[in-house]
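[job 0412] stage=fold_complex status=start
inputs:
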Amino acid sequence: AQKVTQAQTEISVVEKEDVTLDCVYETRDTTYYLFWYKQPPSGELVFLIRRNSFDEQNEISGRYSWNFQKSTSSFNFTITASQVVDSAVYFCALKTGRRALTFGSGTRLQVQP
Amino acid sequence: EAGVTQSPTHLIKTRGQQVTLRCSPISGHTSVYWYQQALGLGLQFLLWYDEGEERNRGNFPPRFSGRQFPNYSSELNVNALELEDSALYLCASSLESGQGAAGELFFGEGSRLTVL
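[job 0412] stage=fold_complex status=done
writing structure:
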């Protein structure tokens, strides 16, 4: 079985603060892919990043960075200097084999001006 | 390039009725996925179609069904609607569908179904 846990239901920060969204996954497969998606109020999920299980190198993209640690089965997402436009629901997801993506329950981020 | 398109965007039905939701994938994508997102909940996997065949099914009753057409578009049918079927139904398409494929999904804006 595979499972994704996003323990933080909702986070509220003030603009320019850094914020980290946690994601913990469970799988018995040795080959898997991890994803982060952003869901703004419009509803459409926007792909942010994909990482395969053999690549633990952290990645930075502008104000976004991702920390993948297989030892703790975590794939955390950090937004540096948050902005109001970052307000959305963020989903972590896991794909193994021929199964469809399994999503976590999401973390709602509110960035206050 | 057009993204994933879904129709209708909003609809209201009453208990016991039937509904059909439609999805057109990105051109060239052969896999279509359906997810249900009830209010305040995460995305629950419903169905996965690839090359016209049902590849996988989530933990939903048989009154949730669908199909994929030769042009890779898809329909989701829900029979005997219940109040708890009220949700945003999201369709996604993917280019990769083989064993171990990365499975990056591109989502549509969804069809919001309200059951009264």
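[job 0412] summary: The interface with chain B takes residues 31, 33, 35, 37, 42-47, 50, 52, 91, 95, 97-106 of chain A (CB under 8 Å).
[job 0412] exit 0
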